Amino acid sequence: MGFKMVVVALFIAVAIRIASSNSEGDALNEWKTKLMDPHEVLQSWDPTLFNPCTWYHVTCNSDNSVIRVDLGNAGLSGPLIPQLSHLVNMQYFMVFGNEISGTIPGELGNWKMLVSLGLQQNQLSGPIPASLGQLKSVRFMTLNSNKLSGTIPIEVLELVLWGNLQTLNVSDNFFQGRVHAGDPTGYAVTTITQDPKIGSA
Ligand SMILES: *[C@@H]1O[C@H](CO)[C@@H](O)[C@H](O)[C@H]1NC(C)=O
């Protein structure tokens, strides 16, 4: 391979890297445009920067890909958007204690690296998407104190039984079914408090 070829290959590699970094910043910026932010906690989210890694409340890995969003108790209102699923290396998505409303986008099931989904104490409504059952590495899913309804998808319960999900808190929502005192799965899940209606979802 000649020198020119190497230069061209490097250029393409760099271009791909830049494109992927920007797509993560674009997704976060798109979300920002949908949010009310009375305390201006998202002021540093400047979409003209190279990538979102210097933004407050955002953490990247060494490849400049976002792995954390920490926006607990930040006074935010507005929806979650499907484009957040473009943050393919997301591990910790912590937006508890806000006024986040609307439904949980099914696309968030694309977060293959996710460890913790902290959505508790918001105004989220509608069902838990069955696609969240694709979150094979998730260990904590705290959905308590929202307005979620329907039944808990068997796909999500299977994460407790066969996957890595250690804590699934769905208390204080509008789920159907009897309140189940104790642990319906027999595993270390102390916080499933609704009858999941296994098999009927
Ligand atoms: C689960 O959520 C409920 C309601 O918000 C809360 O009272 C309880 O402490 C939570 N359980 C755990 C183990 O965090």
UniProtKB/TrEMBL annotation:
Residues 21-61 form the Leucine-rich repeat-containing N-terminal plant-type domain. InterPro entries: Leu-rich_rpt (IPR001611), LRR_dom_sf (IPR032675), LRR_N_plant-typ (IPR013210). Residues 1-21 form the signal peptide. The keyword Repeat applies. Keywords: Leucine-rich repeat, Repeat, Signal. PANTHER family: SOMATIC EMBRYOGENESIS RECEPTOR KINASE 1 (PTHR47988). This is Leucine-rich repeat protein 1-like isoform X1. The lineage of its organism: Eukaryota, Viridiplantae, Streptophyta, Embryophyta, Tracheophyta.
